[in-house]
User: What shape does this take?
Amino acid sequence: MLRRTFLGAAAMLALTGAASAQEPLKIGLILPMTGPFASTGRQIEAAAKLYMQQNGDTVAGKKIQLIVKDDTGTADVTKRLAQELIVNDKIAVMAGFGLTPLALAPAPLATQAKVPAVVMAAATATITEASPYIVRTSFTLPQATVPMAEWAAQNGIKKVATLVSDYGPGIDAEKAFTSAFTAKGGQVENLRVPLANPDFSPFLQKVADAKPDALFVFVPSGIGAQFMKQFVERGLDKSGIKLIGPGDVTDDDLLNNMGDVALGAITTQHYSAAHDSPENKAFVEAFKKANNGMRPNFMAVGGYDGMHLIYEGLKKTNGQGGQALIDAMKGMSWTSPRGPVSIDPQTRDIVQNIYVRKVERRDGELYNVEFATIPNVKDPVKAAKSN
Amino acid sequence: MQSDTADNVRAALGRRGRWGWGEVAFWLVAAATLVFLPERHLILNEIAIIGLFALSLDLILGYAGIVSLGHAAFFGLGAYAAGILAKNGIGDPLLGLGVAALAAAILGFVTSFLVLRGSDLTKLMVTLGVALVLGELANQMSWLTGGADGLQGITMGPILGLFEFDIFGTVAYAYSLVVTFVLFVIARRIVVSPYGLSLRSIRDNPLRARAVGIPVNRRLVAVYTLAAAYAGVAGALLAQTTQFVSLDVLAFHRSADVMLVLVIGGVGYLYGGLIGAVFFKVLQDVLSAWTPQYWQFWIGLILVLLVLAGRERLTDRVRALRPRSRRGLATDKARPLPTTTAREV
Assistant: This one.
């Protein structure tokens, strides 16, 4: 009977594995669809599906099949799923990757199997260096942070306190901001908050006592609302301390529910749902329509552009994957909903405009409204290395 | 009278120590998957590892009655030990396993003294706390562990200098399966020994066990250390076969998942962890392929139904279908011990 249970399970496995009549081009989309980072996965999946809906599912005469897998935000699962997709499903390209470790775990596989990996979300600068087959359509944290430091220095801010979540990307943001801002003659005090279950109030009290001109904040996109609430509870919104940071804290997905406290926060990032261009208007409208009014955020645009990159790459290679595909992706440029973007042929990282935005109310909803543009920003970490 | 009891105990233990047909079949099927399910070796590898991890939890929970919500501490420590070793150029897998087992055993030994104190609730808190402390240490010591980015650049050497890890996961699965089997056999030997019997009496009634002269604390320290070493090996297997370690090897959900796996399969029964792992992972894989967004809903529903409808463990129903004649025969020879049931091996 033991045997029967086991065989039954095995048969079930075999059934789900065997399903390939004719050979479509397969794209493996690995995302955190459940767990604390589920919103990232949902945004990207929705955007990828929208792209396929708008552009058809045939490229270079071949049918495109999107296989979505949930890695629950756990790196070893990501790696196993990537391996299964490569070995069993023979995917042409993999994509997704919600967090830095989730993108780094399958990197050796991409190299080994020569399967391009399109990073649509994870934002630590070093990711594209982990494999020559990784290309990124999201952003890097220093890319969004350094312009913030420059803007702050130019706009009369002299003393800044930084408050970041204590993990890789947070420390990246802190370092990028601090070095760029002190280089311009500013003064910085660094504070770090634990990543899990953060209580911001003691840190915010310190900030209130230190009375800096501005508070620089980076928290992962889900935590922003909680931070805003405590920011107000401590009365910092009335203290004249400006709130600045990379755009994660005023994530479009959550911004509207934060309420008026978010008004006036100044952030720098590559995408806002309020970006003023015909491409973006069409994108936001179609996205909302397909997803019950959900507003696309920077994750969604990463997924949308990632699919665009894959489609265009496959068109160029006539449906070929592997080395040819990654070569085709290098140097590609197009107009995304976020504005003009291109893939740096050297680093395979995205080059894009960074916008300075301010939270304002428009048509009754809160938006990050862009008021200044820093064009064609490359990832500053890799730019510094190559110089 | 005295020797009569001793004989009875010896006979009962000997009877439990014998391998049943079901068990042989179980391992034969497991070995057969190496040949017959080549596409599924990656997930089977994960199942073997989780099975071993659940087995290790069963040693303390099922056999010694120590509840733990932080068993991932040992799993994670083993994973990091093996990973860091391999990253620094010592890529021999078996050596890595040994080091991981040793590191986890040391941590298990040291923390066992904390766990001995207090009630079940205290134990839950202490084990949880140890895992949290380790998780935060791994996060802070990013020069050693890679922090939130995970440990990069692990390259494993071939096993015994012969078998190179391949992309299909076949060698990885064979390796994990063999290690799990060997450790299972050892655990099986231990739980049918008089030592194992004394553990169960401690679990059933620590006060009485102490009264009859069992050195309760020493026994518990020993089994906790052993279970920690097992968990360390499971973690090392994961690190070596995936060649990557990230902070979530120490995360709370690891400890919770393994508890779930064990409860599904059956506590206090060595196959419980293995069967639970097969059931849980296969269910998860099938459901999440079917609906990547909502599979957790279905898995939750199925688990609730399973517990409500079954009450008894999966393995019990399997057992109920086994021919009764053998069991009857056995009772003729020696009466079963009053407080322990036949299913406890």
In short: Residues 298-317 of chain A form the longest helix (20 residues). Residues 1-21 of chain A have pLDDT under 50 and may be disordered. Chain A has two domains: 23-139+279-348, 142-269+353-386. Chain A touches chain B through 51 residues (CB under 8 Å).
